[in-house]
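User: Okay, second chain of the day. Same drill as before: sequence in, structure tokens out.
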Amino acid sequence: MIGVDDSPFVSHILPLRGIAVQVGEIAADCTGTLSHASGQVFSPNHPTNESRDPMGKKSKRYRAALSKQPQNLLPLAQAVEVLKQYDSTKFDQTVEVHMRLGVDPNQADQIIRGSLVLPNGIGKTQRVVVFAKGDAAKAAEAAGADEVGQEDLAKKIKDGWTDFDVCIAAPDMMGLVGPLGRVLGPRGLMPSPRAGTVTADVAKVVGEYKAGKVEFRNDKGGNVHSVVGKMSFDSEKLIENINAFVSFIESLKPSTVKGTYVRGIAICSTMSPSVRIAS
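Assistant: Same drill. Structure tokens below.
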């Protein structure tokens, strides 16, 4: 039996297995220090709204927006309009799309990863650095790269500089870039052939990222996330970007996936509740 002294195990191990457990239920026969009334729910995907926010109370503005959150699935155009009706903020919020996929992240042939140039960009100029030399370096600079270099750039990054959004490398630079994996990898900045950031045509890729290219990779739960624009975008532009992203993810369905591939889609902004859309 799991008792009160085992609560660290419950709160840290069980969520990793996707198991929803209330501490009060587990320790019901113990001292009562952790009771059912505590309402502590240890599950990252608990299906109800009963879980407590460990960061404290949500803001008044967020609670007001939450009261407007639709409980049913909506067509994309209607979902975008609902998103725009949430209370505004003093800054231009980023709009994101989140897709829950029926893939097994532990299977190499079911990893969903890639990049896509959105039709209307993302409303942000991305900072791009490039590892290249000779003519490739000159072409990258002409295409608008924020910084181009070799050993000097590698040393700068190794010393902790990561003030950029995208790192691109020519194939002959990977011997220099490889050791930077410890710095770039955890931040999702490591160049990769699969993502298209290891390429001989660095100028073309620089231009794509400056035009609004986004990278994505499924997380450990089989979910894919991406920025798709800004709240200041016209509804039509947001709809076009979201449709382009969803269609591209659908086209990447692995042949080994059984059952439903796209299990859920939701959109949200930086500081708003989500709106679920009908796939």
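The first strand starts at residue 21 and ends at 22.

User: Thanks, on to the next one.
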